[in-house]
Input
Amino acid sequence: MRRNQIAQRSAFAVAGVLAAGQVQLAALHAAGLTGTAPANGQAIQALITTLTQNWIWLVSLGLGLIVVVLAGLLIAGSRTAPDWLFKVIAGILIILVGAPALLA
Output
């Protein structure tokens, strides 16, 4: 394929996605979505807050346990413990730095 064909097809794909998004927004608006919270919406907000706090606690607990196990392996003289430690650190950096950068 030539470059201008690829660029033209990419432009058509982007236009199609934007048109589909506009159709979905129009359908939501026609269904009565106004952007304001429904009555008793505080209960849903409290549920989401609780789930988020639990998720943060579980992730931090899991990472803490992994670091403790890897520290024990390092102390015991394991040859593969540094490799695993660097893999865990790289994974944490990808999750904490890379994913938000891609989503922004």
Summary: The chain has a mean pLDDT of 84. Residues 25 and 33 are 9 Å apart (CA to CA). The longest helix spans residues 41-76.
